[in-house]
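Course assignment 3, question 2. Fill in each field.
Student: A.L.
Task: Predict the tertiary structure for the chain below.
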Amino acid sequence: MLGSVAIVVSLIVVGACTKEGPPGKDGVDGKDGEPGINGTDGTATCGVCHDNSEGVEIKTAQWAGSVHAIGGHNFENRTTCAPCHTSQGFKEVVNTDTTATMAAISNPANINCYTCHKIHDTYATGDWELRKTTPIKFWLTGNTFDLGNGNICAQCHQPRTSYAIPDVTNPTGTYTITSSQRRFGPHYGSQGSTLVGDAYYLIGGGYINSSHVGIEDACVTCHMAEPIGYTAGGHSFNIYDSFEGDYNVAGCTGCHTADEALELIEAFHPEIEALLTELGTLLETAGIYNPAGTSGTAVPGDYTNDVAGVYWNYKSIKEDRSLGVHNPKFVKRILEQSIASLQ
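Answer field:
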């Protein structure tokens, strides 16, 4: 025990007397590392689009009054509706052969900048690129057409696959419209197919497409022409200026003078309206058409393919909403042939 105490005491004494010496000479500096990459200002990429030209603001104001912004029914978020009625659904299917989303879209957004453009994908000029540039393959017929930048428009402005076009090779065959099919027809989006003369019940022959089918970029050239304020043209997509009560014919002047374009519209619209009215009356007489229908205008029942096919043509032209301007020669011939088949 005494030995242990002695050892502890000796350690305390030695520890108390130990002292660090002066610091040694500094060593040689090490080699500098490689310089880092120069950074960029945090807002530099934003300025690519958000500059003082107010370009984004102008486009946004035009879009805000468009049907895409306020009339697209983006609440239609079911799997078969979402590809055209919601921004998320459109982006999911746009470059596929799919006609429905994998699931219903939650928190659906209406058709907006992100729908058609690659906004904020790269934060560079590539963000203005269109999400679809390849030729459009129509869902109902499988036929392919190249409308340039208009391909992205035709992605939705085409007949849906909800109903089959009646068999024109068997005009007397039976076509049944059930009580759940009162909306029988192309489902509101026949502009693309009308432009190229596709997805119609072609009775007889003599069909010729107008020169409009050859317009570069198709829909875009006319509907997004030099705008009138923010009510027609540009990203409003409108042809008719509701404030001024006139047509924006800026997209027509590549082939017509402004006055000539207006004269053609004013002469052609009444002619097509008269043919549509005549055909509608014949369809009412045939029993297939109820113009007062609130959940669709088709009357359930069994009809010949000819009667159902003519109704399909009627609805396609009505829902095209251009009164034949998209394809004047073709539309006039369709109406004439359809009327003749019911007389």
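Instructor remarks: The mean pLDDT is 91. The chain is about 35% helix and 5% strand.
Grade: pending
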